[in-house]
Structure formats: C-alpha cells, structure tokens
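SAMPLE LOG
Freezer: B-3
Tube label: C17
Construct: single chain, 172 aa
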Amino acid sequence: MSKNKGKDGEMQVAKLLANISQTNDNVDFTRQTITNCPDQGADFIIKHDKNFLLEFAKIADSSIKNDSLRNVSQRKNYETRIDVKTTDKKLQKDIVDKFVQDINNFPNCDGHILMGGEGLTKQAKKNFDTAQDNQSKKSKNIMYIPNKGIRKLEEHYEDENKIKTIDDIKKK
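STRUCTURE (predicted):
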C-alpha cells in the first residue's frame, strides 16, 4: 500500500477493470489522469457493449434503470465513466451532487458509475435517485456501487479470470 489512500482505491479498481478486460473481449478501459490531478470526475472510462452495464450491476447488487437502456441506440461500443471514492464511510450529498454535475463533462458517455464508500447518506441517496430518474430520460445510465459491491465484482472476475501470471498468457 502506498501512503495515498485515494491512489490505492483507484489502483484496486484498475486491477478489477483489468480482470474484466481479460475475461470479456468487449470491455477495455482507459485511465484519464494520474491520482490527484484534475480529471473532471472520471478516474476511468470503460468501453463496452450494451449488455455490460446490466451484468456489472447484477454482479455488484447495484441498480440501474433498465428502461434507460431501451432508449440507447444499437451501437457496437458504449462508454461509461467511473468515479472512485476511497472511504469506509457513507458518501455525502456533496460528493453525489458533484458526481451528477460531472455527467455534463462527458456527453459521449452512456453510463456513469460512482464507486466506493459504505453507502449513501439519506440526502445523498435521495439526490442520487432523483438524478438516476432524470438521467434515464436522457438515455444516461447512472449507478452507485458501494465497497461491498466492489468486493463482489472482484471475487466474481478473479474467479473467472484464470490468468495469474504472464506465463498463463503465453499458454493461450
């Protein structure tokens, strides 16, 4: 572990996304900036197919507005922004409000995922739910994945990804 908790959380999600990318040919990701640099609310951008967000939400026990996916055009590639918050506390209203505001910085993203924390405070949840309803009308999918959901994703994709070393890749 480094001395930077935020960086460690982002790197943990990077490892998760790498595992997902190795198990799913239709998923890849980029990291927008390095830790503690302005990123406009995007730690990662994932490129994926249409079904990925539903699978991701199901594994993480998160919610997504299924009706908003019906409004998304039939394209091969979609983009989703991920904003990681490294904390063992509930996320506050101001964090959720900034996450929602940052949607405007990424008009080409179909999805927006806030990850981290042990849940949302009452007011943060209310604001998130309102934003989720409003964004689904614009064919934008937003979801929140708490720490326990991240752990479920890590377990699922670690079990599914049989590649443990560079030698395993050579055997493919």
